[in-house]
């Protein structure tokens, strides 16, 4: 009775919610800190935190399962992904469609936790889902697919800030820009594994367009831009202190290490660079930023 739920969580790699969630939580802590400082917003509420957690988990789950549906035919043809649940028949298309619908409904329902005071999360919920689902088709028509994915995850800190303060501001936009560049960069690295397949299928990824070496250089440029955005955040959100600055320096070193793991002629350590280092980057920034603001 537990096999199908387990397979569904494996299919969407639920544990990888760790990549985007820390940035949403950091933006929430920033919003609560700003509200406490200027008296313009309510103090911390457990209902807000619960709403952010529910919306993050369900939105990502819906987007990932939709991606598996959209790429089912391509996954079956790609040796790297042919063992995934849908191509192998471990999960049926109907069950994944039902799971996607349930997560989408759960996401919209999660925004109701911010009512009656803040209707903006509810208003934005369906457009956000449409944008998230749109990513699954981008490699078919644009080389900018990696930046589309980055923008999708960059919505998380903006959404968390809006959910708490019912407004947009420069700090979450800058944090969102850092997330966009970070995700676009590591997605280019990850896509290098499918360089030959993407060219064969005429998919428009950065590695297919510029080669593996070119993709790694562009990814490095994106990650340099991410560090620059995190430095800018230190200036536009003065509540951060030297502990945050030290955390940004550590993230810069981690990104250098990530790029040292992968070379054009050796992609064997892509998974270590993609999963391990990036998890430390996202969780580490949340911990350092939160402790800094609390102190």
Summary of the model, kept short:
With 295 residues, this protein is mostly helical. Helices cover 75% and strands 0% of the residues.
Task: Provide key terms for this protein.
Tetracycline Repressor, domain 2
Q: What would you note in describing this structure?
A:
- With 295 residues, this protein is an all-alpha fold.
- The protein has one domain (3-294): Orthogonal Bundle (Tetracycline Repressor, domain 2), CATH 1.10.357.
- It has 13 helices and no strands.
| CATH superfamily heading | UbiA prenyltransferase
CATH topology: Tetracycline Repressor, domain 2
What's the number of domains? 1
State the low-pLDDT regions, or none: none
CATH architecture: Orthogonal Bundle
- Rg over C-alpha atoms, rounded to the nearest angstrom: 19 Å
Look at the structure and give the CATH class. Mainly Alpha
Largest sheet: none
Shape: globular
Oligomer: single chain
Count the E strands: 0
Order of helices and strands: HHHHHHHHHHHHH
CA-to-CA gap between the ends?
A: 47 Å
Helix content: over 70%
- Kindly name the structural category: mainly alpha
Give me the number of helical elements. Answer: 13
**Beta-strand percentage range:** under 5%
Which whole number gives the mean pLDDT? 93
